[in-house]
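Response to reviewer comment R2.3. The reviewers asked that we include at least one raw input/output pair. We reproduce the pair for glutathione-specific gamma-glutamylcyclotransferase here without editing.
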Amino acid sequence: MLSSFICSLFFLTQFRLSFSLSQYCLTKFLCCGSSRNSNHIIKMAMWVFGYGSLIWKAGFNYDDRLVGFIKDYRRVFYQGSTDHRGTPEYPGRTVTLEPAPGEVCWGAAYKISKEEDKETAITYLEVREKQYDKKAYVDFFTDPLATTPAISGVMVYIASPDKKLNPNYLGPASIEDIAKQIVRAEGPSGPNREYLFQLEKALLQIGCKDKHLMDLANEARRILSESEHTAS
Ligand code: SIN
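Raw output as returned:
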């Protein structure tokens, strides 16, 4: 009886030890650039966080997509777009991230594992996100109650407020003015309002209610229906 109890205890301890070890290895594998074992280098997966159009249109091959959030940032329509949703004559507005201690920004993280996919994704994103002057590496969470991130070192594109590095930055304005600008602007990737409404839909699909964005979408709909009434 006693020996079978000691045996179970031993088994449990061994199991917990090997489970913790495999968890440690998995975390190492996901979070670091690469690691070397005795014979070869193990390449790590790359993760990209999307909080704007990347949520509904990745545009590159990926192996996994997780819905979740990053901490201490909020999504704001403060970036001017002259290449996608506007023109140099009449810029549109797209989202960027603003530091906001205590807040969170929901979106989607994409895992890219194959070396050829990583290269293609980076080449593609560097063109698509060329008006975003900064890349940050952040902790990504999937569980609002978790204190440790699901993934660390997730890459994210940010348009900074530094006008020298980011001449297209527009910054804050009233909800009415931002919505008016979005309703009017159109660029090579389509109308700016389509970007706003698609982002609203994509966020609702992942269960996120973003007040700044919903206020803008409601105001844009109000402007559009008012102009329809005036025209008819
Ligand atoms: C992003 O989606 O993460 C960047 C902003 C955008 O392309 O809309």
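Residues 46-226 form a domain with the Hypothetical upf0131 protein ytfp fold (CATH 3.10.490.10). The CA atoms of residues 8 and 32 lie 36 Å apart. Further pairs are available on request from the corresponding author.
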